[in-house]
Amino acid sequence: MNSRTRARTLNAILTWATLFTLPACTSNGWHRNQSLPDPTPEQQVAATLDAFHDAAARADEALYFDLLADDAVFLGTDPAERWPKPDFQAWAAPYFGRDSAWTYHAIERHIALSPRGDVAWFDEVVRNDTYGDLRGTGVLVRDARAPRGSVSRAWRIAQYNLTFMVPNDVAPRYLELVGTPDTPR
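Now predict its structure.
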């Protein structure tokens, strides 16, 4: 089969495939009366956390801090890092001036909800190219301003705590480096 015949055959196949599949992809297709199920609160919380991490990776400062509650606290890896939202935003501003502020990808996550469903707490393992695996824990609150049924911005992060995970077998060496209350470094 020469290249001209092959091109005509491929063109005919694509034309027929388009004619038969296009109706299923339009609003008049077979799915017009179908709707996707509403996301569960756990899925909404997971999407909020994913958006939080993604916003930092893309240096989207507005979205990143919009996902934090007004009275949010970010607890960083350094013992001195307890950042109320305004202080954290001021400290982080230079990082958000770059192409990427920082990048963490969740590789494991557990979410629980309060009985009323308006508070969620989570723990996750996040991966960073420089630091490896860290643990993030925290609390999200349902945003009372979000319209009922709204997925967008339905949850706000009230506290995020980022910590290094120290395996028990290396804890004595770790404590030698950082000290203890009785033996400061």
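The chain has a mean pLDDT of 84.
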